[in-house]
Structure formats: C-alpha cells, structure tokens
Amino acid sequence: MKHVTYIGTRDASIQASASEAILKGICADGGLYIPAEIPTMDTPLEELAKLSYQDLAFTVLRKFVDFTDEELRACIDGAYDEKFDTKEIAPLVQKGDAYFLELFHGRTLAFKDMALSILPYLMKTAAKREGIDKEIVILTATSGDTGKAALEGFADVEGTKIIVFFPEDGVSPVQKLQMTTQEGKNTCVVGILGNFDDAQTAVKQIFTDVELAAELEARGYVFSSANSINIGRLVPQIVYYFHAYLQAVKQGGLSMGESINFSVPTGNFGDILAGWYAMKMGLPVGHFVCASNDNKVLYDFFQTGTYDRNREFHVTVSPSMDILISSNLERLISHMVGQDLTKEEMTRLQTEGKYSVEIKESKITGEYATEAETYTAIKDFFGKTGYVMDTHTAVGYAAYKKYKEATGDNTPTVIVSTASPYKFTKDVMMAMDDKYKTEDAFVLMDELAKISGVAIPEPIRGIETREILHKNVCEKTKIQEFVKGYLL
Ligand SMILES: *Cc1c(COP(=O)(O)O)cnc(C)c1O
Q1: What count of other Cβ atoms lies within 10 Å of the Cβ of residue 451?
Q2: Residue identifier of the C-alpha nearest atom 2 of ligand 1
Q3: pLDDT values of the chain reduced to their tens digit, one per residue, 488 residues
Q4: 248 within ligand 1 shell (Cβ under 6 A)
Q5: Is the C-beta atom of 170 inside 6 A of ligand 1?
Q6: Which atom belonging to ligand 1 lies closest to the Cα atom of 419?
Q7: Quick check: CB of 24 below 6 Å from ligand 1?
Q8: 267 Cα: distance to centroid of ligand 1 (angstroms)
Q9: Ligand 1 mean position to 392 CA, how many Å?
Q10: Which domains does the chain show, CATH number per domain?
Q11: Active-site residue (options: 63, 87, 95, 112)
C-alpha cells in the first residue's frame, strides 16, 4: 500500500513520513503537517458497518500511517480496551431531535481520550521505526482536558517524559484535581498564570527554538507534542465520524449513503477538522456546524473571512473551548488556498493578530452559544428528555438549533458530545437550578447522579480526597525557563 506523505501547511517542500510527522509534532518553520493527498475510503460503507470500533480504526488509520499492519494492530489493541467503560467505545444515542456521539467513555471523561489513548503507542512505534534512542519529552499546553488525557496516556510509558501546562485559574475544579493528583514518575504538571493561548504559544516557540533543541539533544532528549497540532492526534479522531454515521444508519435514522450533519463544540479546531477529513475521504456529510462559546473568533471568521484574535478573552462555563488561536484552522486554510497564501496569512497572524482569507464551500458554518444560551440548552433539554449534556456539548446543541432555525436544514444531525457532565458538575447543576450556586462541586456529583440516573464515573469517584502531587505555578513568560530547569 502506498503511504501518505505529509507536507507543511506553509511550505509544500517540507515533507515527512507519518512516523517523522508524529515524532516532530510541528514543522521547523512553525507550520503544521498535513497529508499531501487525503486518502479515499475505498471500503464500501456496507462493509465498514460490519466492523467493530477497533477494526474500523484499523481500516481508517492504515491509510494514514506508515506502520506495518502488525504494528498498527498492536497500537489499536493497546488503546481501545477496557480503559473505556463501554465495549462500543463511542456510543451514539438518540435523544430528542438529535443524535449524541458520546466520546467521553475513556479514563478522563472527555473526547481527548479517543486520540490520547493511542498517541503514546503511535509515538513509540514511530520512534522505533525511525531508530530514535533519545528520551521523548512531551510538551503539552491544555485548556483543561488534553492535559489529563495526555498524562493518563503517557504516565510511566518508558522512554518518555511529559510536561503539562494548564491555565491556573481557567479550568474546572474536577479538571484541576485530575491533573494535580496525577501519578507517574515521568509526569510534571504546571499551572501557568495566563490562559491557554499563552501556554500554546510558549510551547510552539519551544518547539521551533533550534538552540534549545540542540542543547536538549546533547542531553539525550527530543521534544514532541501531544496537542492537536500533532497529526497523530488528529488521525484517530477521523474514525469516530465514520463510526457515528454507521451507527445512525444501524439505528434506522437514515439510509446508507444519505447525508448526515455534525455539530462540533470547537476550540483548537482539531475535532471538527478530523470530521472534515472523514468527509473528504468519502463519508456522506451534508454540513458541519462549528460551535463556539463567547470566544467566537471562529464564528466571525466563517461569517466574514477575517480571523481576528484582537479581542477580549472570556473565561466561560465551557473552558475547554476558551481559545482565541485555533491552530488547526491553519490546516483547513492550507488545503483550501495553498501553502504560499497560508504562510503569508499566518505571518500576519503573528505580527498583527489577524488575517483574511476567502474560503469557499468548506461545508462548515460557524455558530455560537452565549453563556445564557448554554445554560438554557442544558435545562430545557433535560426537561424534555431527561438527558444531561455537559456545558461543551450544550454549546454544540444550542449552535445546532440556531443553525437549523436560520437555514431550515433538516438533515439528521449528530452532536459531538465531548465531555461527561460530571467533569463540569457545578455549572451543569447551576444550569438546572440557581439554588445549587452555593453548593460544593463534589457534593453536587451525588445530586447529579440522582437526577440523571447515571452513576458517578469510576475514574473521578472520590477525587477530592486524593493527594495533590503537583504544585508548580509559573509566570506565562517563564515557561521556557521552567522547561530548561526541569530537564537540564
Ligand atoms: C478540547 C475540547 C473541545 C474542543 O476541541 P478542539 O479539537 O480543540 O476543537 C471541546 N470540548 C471539550 C470537552 C474538549 O475537551
């Protein structure tokens, strides 16, 4: 089988195999790796429908990596096992007027587990193939969920170290405890006095700092990334778009070949981009709704063609989407308008904080939900169906309703359900009733169990009593010094 070549978003002459791209994480010029050609899914949907999640993953991923079939099988078997609390891995449930693709059945209760449970295996296999004998240092900026999922994936994985930076005051209490109580000799967790964009920018700078890389290499380290700038994060996410479609057909919601829509709660644009790749491979998708919260930089972009990060940053009830620089949008742009223009516009983003490109027929519409709309969506939907959405999923649902109202598009729709409501218990319960305002988030978990009929997920039961193992706090301008101090 011919393997996909990866090229840079800003320079098509930068080329890499899948293994190289997974290990490097980011191109030397600051661009991201994209497939030079998006492979087509040549297995008919009818055949795909017979596969388990693992076999479907094998069929999709095999098109994107340069591993042997045995190597890839081992990665998939290691990742999608009993770590997930359901055999289906990613159940599709129909509630009210939509489908919900529940991607939160992994250890950390958010969709990041779908990719981060397999990334360590992909990275180790890539390192073996490339003959890397250095210790791989995973640097990760997180808006809350990536950090824990990456820690869980890489903890005590031989030959790796992982350092996670999260916004000290920008994550939910459960998210924070999930990270600061992380065990594993090779883990390091740091709260930064800044937001996700500060952390992501610092991490990207460290990756492209040639001097620092040389210094570390001399000490036996190489950097890689567990953020969705790494192609090894994106590719596993393509699988569940196929899975959702096939499940919807099985459940009788549409006939094979008919189109489906997806509404995706979006931050760094990784999840929705994976869906877009699935569509490019041949999955019958009518439309994507790119759902934002009050940080609606993507909504404005899809409305006007201008991306402008010069605006107030809002800390919202959907913190994993509190992002003003959506890195993976660069990939979509490069596919649509080519490398030269992408390079120009990304340079403008760095110098002016904004850029403009005309994107035609991406099949993506931006929508957004305010804080009040998010709360209302949770409460009303629970009232109608008894189903409790988390705050991020609620943004996706509210955006879907607005899109449907504005366009009259009645295509069956999957809301990509990115987190368990237990991860954001306090806000979910406050959406239900203002009386919970003064209650402790952990006490409210019992209340949530009562009203939803869904038990508290095992990985966070009793988390409030676990020992805090990580207490590092760092200024946002001192991230590089911290990394050096920790490693050298
Ligand atoms: C990360 C995250 C998102 C945003 O996904 P992107 O791939 O960054 O667009 C949405 N919801 C939750 C719960 C997340 O953890």
Answers
A1: 14
A2: 320
A3: 678 999 999 999 999 999 999 999 999 999 999 999 999 999 999 999 999 999 999 999 999 999 999 999 999 999 999 999 999 999 999 999 999 999 999 999 999 999 999 999 999 999 999 999 899 999 999 988 999 999 999 999 999 999 999 999 999 899 999 999 999 999 999 999 999 999 989 898 898 899 998 999 999 999 998 998 999 999 999 999 999 999 999 999 899 999 999 999 999 999 999 999 999 999 999 999 999 999 999 999 999 999 999 999 999 999 999 999 999 999 999 999 999 999 999 999 999 999 999 888 889 999 999 999 999 999 999 999 999 999 999 999 999 999 999 999 999 999 999 999 999 999 999 999 999 999 998 999 999 999 999 999 999 999 999 999 999 999 999 999 999 999 98
A4: no
A5: no
A6: 13
A7: no
A8: 5
A9: 8
A10: 92-107+234-458 (3.40.50.1100)
A11: 112
Please tell me the pTM assigned to this model: 0.95
401 tagged catalytic: no
